[in-house]
Design brief:
Structural class: alpha/beta
Largest sheet: 7 strands, mixed
Oligomer: single chain
Distance between the termini: 24 Å
Number of strands: 9
Shape: globular
Helix content: 25-40%
Radius of gyration: 15 Å
Number of helices: 5
Length: about 180
C-alpha cells in the first residue's frame, strides 16, 4: 500500500493540505503529516491550527513511496535551511522510480530549487510562477504526471489532484467509488 509523507510548514495552504489528506485516507492510503517546523503544531495560511503526526527531524523518509509538498506561502520553507533532511533525501532519491514526488501550486518550484528536475520531466504550477525556475520543465496543464513526479496548478484542483493520485496508485474504479460516496 502506498505510504505518503506530507510535508507541512507554517503558512501551508489549508485546502492543498486538508483535501488530499482526506481523499487519500478515504481511499485507504497511508498518510502521515510531517511538520518541518520544530514542533508538531502548525498554523496554516488561513489560520487553521493542526497537529502533525511527527516532526521531520525524527522521521525516516525512506519508508515512504511518495513525498507531497502542498503550496501556500509556507512552501518557501521547504529548503536547506528549514528542511535539510527533506532536501537531502530528494536530491538522493529523485531518480528512484519507486518514490513519487508530488507538489501543488507554488510548491513545484522547490523541485527546481533542489535541482531534481531533469530535462525530460514536465511539471505544472500556479500560473505566472513558472518563470524563470520551471521554464524548461513547465507545461500549462491543471495536473501533470511525468516520470515519478505529479504536480497540480493550484488550490481549486486539490480534489482532482488527490483523485489522480488515487487513480495512479490504486485504480480508476476506486476514484469512481470515492466520488460517488462523496457526492462529487
Amino acid at each position: 500500500m502506498l505510504k505518503i509523507a506530507i510535508m507541512v510548514a507554517n503558512q501551508t495552504e489549508d485546502i492543498e493540505l486538508i483535501v488530499p489528506v482526506d481523499i487519500w485516507r478515504r481511499a485507504g492510503l497511508i498518510v502521515k503529516l510531517i511538520s518541518i517546523e520544530k514542533k508538531k503544531n502548525v498554523i496554516l495560511s488561513h489560520g487553521t491550527k493542526i497537529s502533525c503526526d511527527e516532526i521531520l527531524s525524527k522521521e525516516n523518509l525512506s519508508k515512504y513511496n511518495a513525498i507531497f509538498l502542498p503550496g501556500g506561502p509556507g512552501y518557501i520553507r521547504f529548503n536547506k535551511e528549514f528542511a535539510p533532511k527533506l532536501v537531502s533525501f530528494a536530491q538522493k532519491e529523485y531518480k528512484n522510480p519507486k518514490i513519487t514526488f508530488m507538489a501543488i501550486c507554488a510548491a513545484p518550484l522547490c523541485f527546481a530549487d533542489w535541482n531534481i528536475l531533469e530535462s525530460n520531466v514536465q511539471v505544472t504550477c500556479y500560473p505566472g510562477l513558472e518563470k524563470p525556475k520551471l521554464e524548461d520543465n513547465y507545461i500549462k496543464h491543471d495536473i501533470v504526471l511525468s516520470k515519478n513526479f505529479i504536480t497540480a496548478a493550484g488550490p481549486g484542483l486539490a480534489s482532482e489532484f488527490a483523485f489522480k493520485v488515487v487513480e495512479k496508485f490504486i485504480d480508476a474504479n476506486k476514484v469512481k467509488d470515492l466520488k460517488k460516496q462523496m457526492l462529487y
